[in-house]
Specification:
112 residues, mainly alpha, Cytochrome Bc1 Complex, Chain D, domain 2, 6 helices, 60% helix, globular
Length: 112
Amino acid sequence: MKKITTMVCGAALVLGWQMSVTSVAHAGNAAAGKEKAKACAACHGADGNSASADFPKLAGQNADYIVKSLQGYKSGTRKNPIMAPMGTNLSQRDMEDLAAYFSSQQGLVTFK
């Protein structure tokens, strides 16, 4: 019984360590993202709450989703004539910083 408990605890520690390493490796800097997001404000709003239904609200969006979307625009696997050129010049770090900023913002719900 002691051997099984040790194995389970050891596996949990390794899994926990891997999860923390993964999240740290992909963590962006929200303060840097706020500065970089100035270029996004015209369409998505300064805090990611777009005033127009034509542009998605980024505030409160999942950071991983934002990074994957930006990677898609950069690589061309995700098509959008407005976002494609925006993603072209972004580095991986830029994407992570933008994602950290927008995901940390409070999404506003609008009613019509």
